[in-house]
Input
Amino acid sequence: MPKITRRKPLRVEPQILIFDVDGVLVDVRQSYWRSALQTVEHLTGKRVTWRELYKWKNKPGNNDDWSMVSRWATALGRRTTYDEARDAFQQFYWDYDGRPGNVRREKILVTSRQIEIWARRFELDLFTGRTRKEFSYTFNRWPASRRFRTVVTMDDVKRKKPHPDGLLQILDKRDPPSALYVGDNIDDALAARAARVPFLAILSRDAYGYRERARRFRQLGALALLPRINALNSLL
Output
């Protein structure tokens, strides 16, 4: 049984489960994260490491990989705009010039059966930092995707995470404590706090910087730290 870290019993009985996508429902280490590494190396000509990526990914405002790449490459001496970072990133993430893209490496972390079980008890929704195109590529081929009532992507809001706009759009004036948001990024926790939606963090104990990230999630009000998404069952 995976260990769940929490300091007090959960006192929420949600009717609505809202999930982030990357790192929660989909393993993106070999798609988005690998693309970010390759893009920074491509732009700067400097070799960068996974350790460095984890440090940048854990900073607020870097849920959007294009923003992260722009800031990272600029910090390494290659001034890079958001648009430049986005365009360079796409060459590694998507199929490009006869080369298969990293998007093909993505893996779903939860079974369709599990989604069906949750859908019998809760309204299921998604609030993701992906574009609609990126979301559709992975989820349109997954039978369980039809169980999500509302999907809010980067293209559907004026302000990206850590702003709470996507959560507020899903709630549509319903009571925030009636929902539960599950994410893996500091920006997810910040968005949940701003929307007053209870938050659960996905954080494996072997994740880089576990102690610091765990401390920060707790500061932001995370109800518990889950090692993986299926551990949610023991709390509901």
User: Anything to note?
Assistant: The chain has nine helices and eight strands.
